[in-house]
TrEMBL record:
Taxonomic placement: Eukaryota, Fungi, Dikarya, Ascomycota, Pezizomycotina
Protein's recorded name: HAD-like protein
Superkingdom in the source lineage: Eukaryota
Source organism of the structure: Massarina eburnea CBS 473.64
SUPFAM superfamilies found in the cross-reference section: HAD-like
Length: 285
């Protein structure tokens, strides 16, 4: 295929370690069925869900929001739907009668929303050992317009985390002499030509409007460089969430799925798309 003119990256789970890893760890530690928290977040509701509101920048990150987020993760109807669906799937595998059809649904798991949230934010400060070096090589090549499109949170000045420590969202680079990126800027936005944060633009994936905005901004940079207009089909988008990729494709973008813990494989696919060698085990972070 013709290489893309522009490459658009999600941040968490692509360029930095996935917050989904923190969710998975929390579920395992607290005996919560794996996948329930993501299910509850995605259920929203879209217009009024606490997670959806914070990622569109419509509410402030404060104690009231943490209470609302906990309520979103504790909705009985979401838990019941998850439990019945998972029980039915497991029963099909086992050849048994679905548990949910014969037994009461257990109580909704107790989730410490504040602890969970800050674990997600803290883990996302670490550059991914495969994708971050690939991004840096793409930037050094000077051949592409690079953008970020991330569902993010606006952190109020002076906000404290769950341990009453001032939160710093800066990247944490390994200072080891063997790390060629040890002296890189801790500001992730420096890696890109455009950086679109959902909480700052008021749109979040998978809203088609945010993909249109991203393409327009990438095109603006390309035209300013004298490279000409960028159309949606000339943009390659990397994300770790299926529904985000689905709507990106509907918007005309090319896509690469980045699975949890599978960034190395995604970089291999990216190499094929751009025609450059990006993976070097010797420079792994």
């Amino acid at each position: 295929m013709t290489p893309p003119k522009a490459i658009l990256f999600d941040i968490g789970g692509v360029v930095v370690i996935s917050p989904f890893q923190a969710i998975l760890d929390y579920e395992v530690e607290n005996n919560i069925p794996v996948g329930y928290i993501n299910f509850a977040i995605q259920k929203g509701p879209h217009d009024t869900g606490a997670w959806q509101l914070i990622e569109r920048g419509e509410v402030e990150l404060n104690d009231q929001w943490f209470a609302d987020f906990r309520a979103q993760l504790s909705l009985p109807q979401a838990w019941k739907e998850y439990w019945i669906t998972q029980s039915a799937q497991q029963s099909l595998k086992d050849g048994a009668v679905p548990v949910a059809a014969t037994e009461p649904v257990p109580p909704v798991p107790a989730i410490d929303a504040k602890t969970l949230f800050w674990r997600m934010m803290k883990i996302s400060r670490t550059p991914d050992p495969f994708m971050y070096p690939a991004l840096r090589r793409l930037k050094e090549s000077g051949r592409f317009v690079l953008g970020a499109l991330s569902n993010t949170v606006h952190f109020p000045t002076g906000i404290l985390d769950d341990e009453a420590v001032l939160f710093d969202k800066s990247l944490i680079h390994d200072p080891a002499p063997s790390n060629p990126y040890a002296q890189d800027s801790p500001d992730i936005t420096h890696c890109f030509d455009i950086y679109l944060s959902s909480a700052h633009v008021g749109l979040r994936k998978p809203d088609p409007a945010v993909y249109a905005l991203a393409v327009a901004e990438l095109s603006r940079v390309s035209e300013a460089r004298g490279w000409g207009r960028v159309d949606a089909g000339e943009v390659l988008f990397l994300d770790d969430i299926g529904v985000n990729l689905k709507f990106a494709r509907r918007s005309g973008l090319r896509t690469v799925k980045v699975g949890l813990g599978r960034t190395r494989e995604a970089v291999r696919e990216l190499e094929g798309e751009v025609g450059l060698k990006l993976l070097d085990e010797r420079s792994r972070l």
